[in-house]
Amino acid sequence: MVWDIKESSTNKVDRFKVTIDKVVLPNKEEKTFSYLDFAKGVCILPITADHEVVCLRQYRQAIKDWQLELPAGRIDIEGSSPIETAKKELEEETGYFAEHWLDLGSFYPSPGSTTEEIFLFAAAGLKKTEQKLENSEQIELNTVSMEELKNLIVEGEFKHGAGLAAILRYKFMTDNQ
Fold first, then answer.
1. CA-angle at 89, arms to 69 and 103, nearest 5°
2. Per-residue pLDDT tens for 48-61?
3. Please, which residues bridge with residue 34 across strands?
4. Same domain, 55 and 70
5. Residues 57 and 128 in one domain
6. What is the pLDDT of residue 134?
């Protein structure tokens, strides 16, 4: 059952929209919920011919620290599909394009506080092109084996949520192949 929205307002703050909904619950109580309206996004697990993963080490202002991540980005062009965005982001951030793509589905990173949905892909058959970074992106490329990546995850060194989801989906989808 969908809750009845009694009143809703949205305010734009930079690239985010903050929505406040006043809802009537099934038990007739009224409650206010606020959440961030995010653009949809993509995350790519790029796998080399040697079965290594191309990771990014990038500065993140929100947490004021460097993070090890997979290539990712938001779908910011109207009408652009997730796979088109994934291909663009992979090439821009890593300087690779991929010949083979595996759709790993999507997930909601934090449905209690945001509308964000991230589409996950694995990419293989990587061919080197040229990195095309935005002026606000500081990215160092790292290539790690799946075993090294597993250790980084277990040790808490790899904390990228969308990256963790992509790795998990890939592992579960390819384990018995």
1. 85
2. 999 999 999 999 99
3. 20
4. yes
5. yes
6. 82
Same domain, 16 and 58: no
Cβ-contact 123, 98 below 8 angstroms = yes
Whole-angstrom Cα distance, residue 141 to residue 71?
10
Task: Report how far residue 121's alpha carbon sits from residue 19's, in angstroms, rounded to the nearest whole number.
Answer: 29
With H, G, I as helix, E, B as strand and everything else as coil, classify residue 61: coil
Pair (19, 52) in one structural domain: no
Give per-residue burial for 156-169: e unless 16+ CB within 10 Å, then b: eebebebbbbbbeb
Cα angle: 83, vertex 87, 91; to 5 degrees: 165
* Closest listed residue to residue 152, CA positions, set 57, 71, 64, 62: 57
Go through the chain and tell me how many residues it has. Answer: 177
Going by C-alpha positions, the residue among 57, 27, 131 that lies closest to residue 89 is 131
Q: Count Cβ atoms within 10 A of the Cβ of residue 23 and give its class: 0-12 exposed, 13-18 middle, 19 or more buried.
A: middle
Range of the domain at 27: 4-37
Give residue-wise pLDDT tens across range 114-125: 999 999 999 999
Identify whether residues 55 and 112 lie together within a single domain: yes
- Of 41, 5, 6, 26, the C-alpha closest to 115 is 41
